[in-house]
Give the backbone structure.
Amino acid sequence: MSVQSIRPQLTEQDIHRLIKGETPEDRATVAHRLCRRIALDVLSDAERAYAQEIMAILAKDAADLVRRTLSVTLRNSPILPRDIAIQLAQDVEAVAIPVLQDSPVFTDEDLIELVLSLTASKQAAIANRDGLSVTLTEVISEHGAVEAVRALSANEGAEYTDRAFEHSIRRFGSDEGVQKGLISREYIPTHIAEKMVSLVSGQLFDLLVNRHELPAQLAIDLASGARERATIDLVEQAGRTHDLPRFVSQLHLNGRLTHSLIMRALCCGQMPFVEHSLAELSGVGHQRVWLMIHDAGPLGLQAVFDRAGMPRKMLPAFRAAVNVFHETSHDGGPNDRARFRARMIERVLTQFQAIPKEDLDYLLEKLDYYSEMAAMDDVESSVGAA
């Protein structure tokens, strides 16, 4: 597209309507046509300069509708000049928000300055951007209005640090929107989860304690009923902990490392927890316990089972579950952990049915849970493929 090729697309009447159109609608229509061409065509330096002149005219138009047309049409375009983008960002919200949320021409320094000077809605638009840097996330969490921090907490593309989490909790820890956004994140640090336990209630509390790792003693206290309506699952917590030996040791010290808990964990495929639990109860090192379970035949498993004080009546079910674990593999797909655990439970229940009622009820509930997770992932994959 050349300067000459832009101009023939606009008749003399178009140019008149663009500059002096009687109605904002007339000027916005022409602006949309031209901005679409600017966004989609490859421009030479001369063409770019001409396009920038037109964009500067549109950015100064008296009508919000025309300026918004410029902002919306070029919101994702790298051709929008940075100075015009900053000008639009300081315009009324209807004009500013599209570029604040999507324009790639802003630098982090630009966005930080804008966060410190703009309204809550504009801050929220910045907080909704894809891929927020650590610095920008910290600035929004420390200086942004609650609306912006809500948006930030729900943005998985925001790079959170401990400092950003701390600012969010300190300033707006009682805000349900911020609570929900943080709890719904894929990961929050253990010490942040611990602080949030005292801030949330109801469904958010249940989601917090069953989605994120908690300090071992707190998890045990909650599971022991130290807090009303706690529904924490120690098997799930074991799978999240980053210090499994300490978690198992705390369970043992608190009398919570029960035979039933170990068996439930095994049936759900939580083998590292089982190994560390038998090591804790038997006084045998973890590496040796691993060999006795996985590489020493049936007598090795029986020996560590007995030394750990596990009841002999559980040994057949335990051995069957270990065999199922060895025979079942991860498929390598998204969320394969849920499918693996569902298959584990199905096969254990099929091969060995003499399971205590409470444990059976637990396993059936977990089977439903893991199957639902796997099904949801299949649906999302199908939608993505379509």
Observations:
- Residues 1-8 have pLDDT under 50 and may be disordered.
- Residues 357-385 form the longest helix (29 residues).
- Residues 113 and 197 are 34 Å apart (CA to CA).
